[in-house]
């Protein structure tokens, strides 16, 4: 840092220059984030200084947070819901697994000085579970997927042992947008008396608003917690994630004594926490309602259908028929194609790991014109 500050004009010149080097979402088919809704942006700005780490000082914002949790409890069929706003899916997953581990430890289910507890997750789990293994020093056992990229219930069951403290299932996988057989996994969780966390970071703001009726939430009795990200399909500002628990019993295992704040306990991972994201999430959820989100999701699903129709015309098949607005395409040499699309055509896409395929997320910032332009370039890139 320099000794003397520079003028505001110069600062904003520097910022504009940096922003020009960011890619515009219009060319991005790899991101699960998008432009936040303008109502969310306005709300975010209005609450920019609000700190939910000391919510006794920000009682109004804290009320908004409680209302978000209740609205989500309503959508996900849970009258006794508890929870809070996180920085996103990663933090929600860390905290959910930490709660499972503490729940088991506090009940004396295992001797923490002797054994390393484990959880069983689908092989398609987000890489945040690799961070979890490291941070919580737990074993994360990965269950096989079937040909539709759903977790195999038999594989999950075979991995459960006496040191297993919980199960995870995915409602909308990051790579393929697939939903695990959560109804069956809920039964397994109940029969083994294990908590079950649902990672619906992406799917949470998609599945309730599509016509297909996937059972994935607290309506299934085995489900004990959920991760949902308003900063993805919820159109809120970053950082907006939500961690939900079926009831107070589970969240209580995250309690920490908080000296020198206006509140004496904290359940969160971070200390200082964005009240702006709380206001933004509240605002956009109230503004759009079920009808508004249904329109957003329906539009993305129509675009996804259009994209799949067109690529089939090019002889390209999706790895699975899209369940949500995430598509993985079976193309020759996906890694090379990805590089070519980026360097020669300025399209930003990603690839899946197993099987390797071209991964596209059809977010609200895309439209039919953009999809058609992309497919024309994809065709050229495949031919050259
Ligand atoms: C995006 C995503 C995450 C991680 O969320 P962040 O907000 O990036 O931390 C976790 N799980 C799933 C299924 C996701 O799609």
TrEMBL record:
<comment type="similarity">
    <text>Belongs to the group II decarboxylase family. Sphingosine-1-phosphate lyase subfamily.</text>
</comment>
<keyword id="KW-0663">Pyridoxal phosphate</keyword>
<dbReference type="InterPro" id="IPR002129">
    <property type="entry name" value="PyrdxlP-dep_de-COase"/>
</dbReference>
<dbReference type="Pfam" id="PF00282">
    <property type="entry name" value="Pyridoxal_deC"/>
</dbReference>
<dbReference type="InterPro" id="IPR015424">
    <property type="entry name" value="PyrdxlP-dep_Trfase"/>
</dbReference>
<comment type="function">
    <text>Catalyzes the decarboxylation of L-tyrosine to produce tyramine for methanofuran biosynthesis. Can also catalyze the decarboxylation of L-aspartate to produce beta-alanine for coenzyme A (CoA) biosynthesis.</text>
</comment>
<dbReference type="GO" id="GO:0015937">
    <property type="term" value="P:coenzyme A biosynthetic process"/>
</dbReference>
<protein>
    <recommendedName>
        <fullName>Probable L-tyrosine/L-aspartate decarboxylase</fullName>
        <ecNumber>4.1.1.11</ecNumber>
        <ecNumber>4.1.1.25</ecNumber>
    </recommendedName>
</protein>
<dbReference type="GO" id="GO:0030170">
    <property type="term" value="F:pyridoxal phosphate binding"/>
</dbReference>
<dbReference type="InterPro" id="IPR050477">
    <property type="entry name" value="GrpII_AminoAcid_Decarb"/>
</dbReference>
<comment type="pathway">
    <text>Cofactor biosynthesis; methanofuran biosynthesis.</text>
</comment>
<feature type="modified residue" description="N6-(pyridoxal phosphate)lysine">
    <location>
        <position position="232"/>
    </location>
</feature>
<keyword id="KW-0210">Decarboxylase</keyword>
<comment type="similarity">
    <text>Belongs to the group II decarboxylase family. MfnA subfamily.</text>
</comment>
<dbReference type="GO" id="GO:0004068">
    <property type="term" value="F:aspartate 1-decarboxylase activity"/>
</dbReference>
<comment type="pathway">
    <text>Cofactor biosynthesis; coenzyme A biosynthesis.</text>
</comment>
<keyword id="KW-0456">Lyase</keyword>
<dbReference type="GO" id="GO:0004837">
    <property type="term" value="F:tyrosine decarboxylase activity"/>
</dbReference>
<dbReference type="InterPro" id="IPR015421">
    <property type="entry name" value="PyrdxlP-dep_Trfase_major"/>
</dbReference>
<dbReference type="InterPro" id="IPR015422">
    <property type="entry name" value="PyrdxlP-dep_Trfase_small"/>
</dbReference>
<dbReference type="GO" id="GO:0019752">
    <property type="term" value="P:carboxylic acid metabolic process"/>
</dbReference>
<dbReference type="InterPro" id="IPR020931">
    <property type="entry name" value="MfnA"/>
</dbReference>
<dbReference type="GO" id="GO:2001120">
    <property type="term" value="P:methanofuran biosynthetic process"/>
</dbReference>
